Amino acid sequence: MGVRGIVMALSLAWSAAGAGLVRVEHSSEAMGSTFGVIAYGSDRANLEAAVDAALDEAQRLDRMLSNYFPESEWSEVNRHAGVRPVAVSAELFQLLSECIRYSQQSGGAFDIAVGPLMKVWGFYRGEGALPQPGEIRNALARTGYRHVLLDPAASTVQFDRPGVELDPGGIGKGYAVDRMVEVLKRRRVEIALVSAAGSSIYGLGAPPDEPQGWRVVIRSPNEAKQAAAVVFLKNESLSTSGSYEKFFWARGRRYSHIMDPRTGYPASGTASVSVMAPRTIDSEVWAKPYFINGRGWTAAHKAEDFRVFFCEDTKEQACSWVH
């Protein structure tokens, strides 16, 4: 089963260690993606209820974070924060605070306020189109986390100018996966795989047939059916960002949806980056700055408990772990 950059190869064979366990698998649509949960346990009723509750959590977060739902908190911020402070829930305020920290730590390569650029390049609802230089300059003037003002005392969000727009695309799915995993843990599920569109995955425990963890194949950027690497997730996440996920051709050049918020243009030179980290929000977020800033920057800045698999965008398609 391959979706947006990661192919999950899961054996259905039972081992002696898995005797007596039942397997439940469900999925649902949220955030414009398919969220899936595979779980093992001894009590089918509890397992079914836990998996359904985890998927309900994805739906709840979709209603909070979606920039397509006019009634979501996220949309409320984008509509009004350019003219007045907007009060938000404690959960959303905390998430936005984390986003600002990510932006600062990545030197602006990750930017929660990249919405105007994504719109002008056509990556919100379509496959993209080449904008005019003046359109890019205009969008850049309204892009940047420095335009986002957070007031912890009042729990409000405000923009310092009209036209700024937050984009949840680089963080929403990872955050949702982590919250779904917490739901499963609270309901005493110890073995599960939670996936958001196949591009952000968390492996809880290890499946009965594989004590190393959940086996995940990272696809080759050039060949969807070929493996670039195989990893095992055991209480760990994996997220992949690839230029092959969404792109368009213009004037003989390929433009991907992974935007460098500092230049106003899609990043180039990298084919894909896969990040393994303890939290899915971290693996999803940091895949973008690593992709944008390149292998050298990644080697100098990656966290000690992260593993990063990097593929350059060259004819040789050189892929290897970053040390």
Mean pLDDT, to the nearest integer, reads 91
Rg computed from alpha carbons, rounded to a whole number of angstroms = 20 Å
Choose one word for the global shape. Answer: globular
Fourth-tier CATH superfamily name of the largest domain: ApbE-like domains
Number of strands: 19
Helix content: 25-40%
Could you give the order of the helices and strands? Answer: EEEEHHEHHHEEHEEEEEEEEEEHEE
Low-confidence stretches: 1-17
Query: Number of domains in the coordinates?
Result: 2
Q: Under CATH, the topology of the largest domain is which? A: T-fold
Number of separate helices: 7
Helix/strand structural class: alpha+beta
N-end to C-end Cα span: 30 Å
CATH architecture annotation of the largest domain: Roll
**What top-tier CATH class of the largest domain fits best?**
Alpha Beta
Main sheet: strand order: 3-4-8-9-12-17-18-19
Note the beta-strand portion: 25-35%
